[in-house]
Design a protein that fits this description.
The chain folds into two domains: 131 residues, Rossmann fold; 87 residues, Transcription Regulator spoIIAA. 37% of the residues lie in helices and 18% in strands. It has nine helices and eleven strands. It has a six-stranded parallel β-sheet with strand order 2-1-3-4-5-6, sandwiched between helices. A three-stranded parallel β-sheet has the order 7-10-11. It has a two-stranded antiparallel sheet with strand order 8-9. β3, α2 and β4 form a beta-alpha-beta unit. α7 runs parallel beside α9. The longest helix is centred in the N-terminal third of the chain and has 20 residues. It is globular.
C-alpha cells in the first residue's frame, strides 16, 4: 500500500502531519509524494477561515477524481476541518472514507487499515465509515516524526490550544484548551533536532507567549529559550 499526504494550514498542522508520517512508515507502509500513485490519501486540513475551508474541500474533490479514474482506494480527512465539521463531512462529502479529529492523529494507522477493508465495499453509508474523535485536550503533543522542512530547519511545538476565546476565533473549539508541553520534553526534542543538524528551530503554539503559565504558574517562554540555547548548539531560534 502506498500512502500519500496533503498537509494544509499552519505549521502546527504540519507538525501533526509529520507525526502521522512517522507512524505510517513505522507500520510498514510506503509513502509517495505523487497522489496519482497513492492507494490512500490523507488530507490534513485547516478550517480557520472561509478560504481555508474551501481549500480543504477543493483538495478533497480533486482527490475524489482519482478514486473514480485511477487506483486510489480511499481518502482520509484529518485535522481542523474534520474536528469542526465532524457531523457534516461524511454526509455532504461522500467521497471521504474516514475522519480523524485533532485528538486522534495517533490513530492514523488504524484509520488506514479500516479504509483498506472499506474499499472492498461500494457506496458505504456514512454511519459505517471509520471515524475517531478522541479528547483533543489530552492528545500527546510531540513524538517521533518525519521532517518535511528543509534539512537545516524544523518546527517544534511547545503548546497547543487557547483559552482566550475571542468572539471572532474558532481555535479554542477546534484545538481545545491551552496546554503547554513540559519543558524537559521540549528540551529533549530540541536536542534531537540538534543531533540531526538543524540550524534554525522555530517554536510554535497558538498562544506562544503564554507558554508555561498552566504548568508552572508563570510565563516561561524566555526560560525555555535560554535552556534550549544552553543545551543545544542550534544557532537560530525563532518564535512563531
Amino acid at each position: 500500500m502506498k500512502i500519500g499526504f496533503i498537509s494544509l494550514g499552519c505549521p502546527k498542522n504540519q507538525l501533526d502531519t509529520e507525526v502521522m508520517l512517522h507512524e505510517v512508515v513505522a507500520a510498514g507502509y510506503e509513502l509517495t509524494s505523487e497522489d496519482i500513485d497513492a492507494d490512500i490519501i490523507i488530507i490534513n486540513t485547516c478550517a480557520f477561515i472561509e478560504s481555508a475551508k474551501q481549500e480543504a474541500i477543493d483538495n478533497i474533490l480533486d482527490e475524489a477524481w482519482l478514486k473514480e479514474n485511477r487506483s486510489l482506494k480511499g481518502i482520509i480527512v484529518t485535522g481542523c476541518l474534520a474536528e469542526r465539521y465532524r457531523e457534516q463531512i461524511l454526509e455532504e462529502l461522500p467521497e471521504v472514507d474516514a475522519l480523524l479529529g485533532v485528538g486522534s492523529i495517533h490513530n492514523i494507522v488504524e484509520a488506514i487499515q479500516a479504509v483498506e477493508k472499506q474499499s472492498k465495499r461500494k457506496n458505504l453509508p456514512a454511519e459505517q465509515k471509520y471515524r475517531s474523535f478522541e479528547d483533543k485536550n489530552t492528545v500527546r503533543l510531540g513524538g517521533d516524526r518525519v521532517l518535511t522542512t528543509p534539512d537545516y530547519a524544523a518546527y517544534l511545538k511547545i503548546a497547543e490550544g487557547c483559552d482566550n476565546r475571542c468572539t471572532y476565533c474558532a481555535i479554542p473549539s477546534i484545538r481545545g484548551k491551552f496546554r503547554s508541553r513540559p519543558m524537559e520534553d521540549v528540551i529533549a526534542e530540541a536536542k534531537d533536532m540538534d543531533a540531526l543538524g538543524i540550524k534554525e528551530l522555530t517554536l510554535v503554539a497558538q498562544d506562544t507567549t503564554r507558554y508555561g503559565k498552566d504548568l508552572y504558574g508563570r510565563y516561561a517562554l524566555a526560560e525555555l529559550i535560554h535552556k534550549i540555547t544552553e543545551e543545544t548548539n542550534i544557532p537560530w531560534i525563532r518564535v512563531l
